[in-house]
Amino acid sequence: MSYLEKLFAAVDDYFIEKLVEKDPIFDQILANNQKHQLPPHDVSPSQGKFLYLLARIKGAKRILEIGTLGGYSTLWFAKALDKEGQVISLEFDKKHAEVASENLALAGVSAKTTILIGPASDSLKSMVKDQTPPFDLIFIDADKENNSVYLDYALQLARSGTIIIGDNVVRDGAVIDQNSIDSRVLGVRSFVDDLSTSSKLTSTAIETVGVKGYDGFTISIVE
After folding, report:
1. Residue 166 in contact with residue 138, Cβ under 8 Å?
2. What are phi and psi of 74, to 5 degrees?
3. Which pLDDT tens digit goes with each residue over 72-86?
4. What pLDDT does residue 1 have?
5. Residue 201: helix, strand or coil by DSSP?
6. Taking a C-beta distance cutoff of 8 angstroms, is the pair 137, 163 a contact?
7. Domain map of the chain by residue range?
């Protein structure tokens, strides 16, 4: 780890210590994810708190999460909702969904969370077909190759004022590599192109450094 990487992580740890409330359930979730050998792709505590604050600022009642993993970010969203709120999370991997369900039950938020198992594009297509009520906030954090597909469906499940967040868009700076052959980078670049040309969205990006390395979010609002 380079000097800057150590510095970024140390500063992130400082803000986490000062600004992210201690809640043992988040540590339990990460430990449970590790026990079940889930990949360590969860958002960091400070990023989770950021998502929580966005949901609170928005006054979100309905949240759609594309990509559940072990439910770490799902819990942050659930904590931002009142008892009538709902998070619907889409997860391709059955094992990941089972671990996430266990984690969310331990956290006591099962009543506010629903996990749909299977390809996200299939779940999204069904939701559009069934005229699912629009969401207040949509978090796209699944396979980057399909980000543009997810954005298209997200717009169909949104309304004016809906916030759409795309995760992992910087990828250690690889997003600016026009010659990349990495399908994840290509997916993110296509996604950003879609954001830039959409007449329905106003967007920006926030770069992040810290315990999760160099990455970032896009944040958009539906006009």
Report:
1. no
2. -60, -40
3. 999 999 999 999 999
4. 82
5. strand
6. yes
7. 3-222
Question: What are the structure tokens assigned to 211, written together?
Answer: 């315990």
Give me 114's structure tokens: 């629903």
Specify which residues 217 forms β-bridges with.
167, 206
pLDDT in tens, 107-128: 999 999 999 999 999 999 999 9
pLDDT tens track for 129-180 = 999 999 999 999 999 999 999 999 999 999 999 999 999 999 999 999 999 9
The CATH H-level superfamily of 3-222 is Vaccinia Virus protein VP39 (3.40.50.150)
Q: How far apart are the first and last CA of the chain?
A: 42
Residue 69 Ramachandran class (φ > 0 left, ψ -120 to 50 alpha, else beta): left
Task: DSSP letter for 71, please.
Answer: S
Of the chain, the percentage scoring pLDDT greater than 90 comes to: 99
What pLDDT shows up at residue 133? 98
Residue 18, CA distances (Å) to 24, 25, 72, 210, 214 in order: 16, 18, 20, 15, 21
Q: Are 103 and 175 in contact (CB under 8 A)?
A: no
DSSP 76-115: HHHHHS-TT-EEEEEES-HHHHHHHHHHHHHTT-GGGEEE
Q: Residue 188 burial (CB < 10 Å; 0-12/13-18/19+)? A: buried
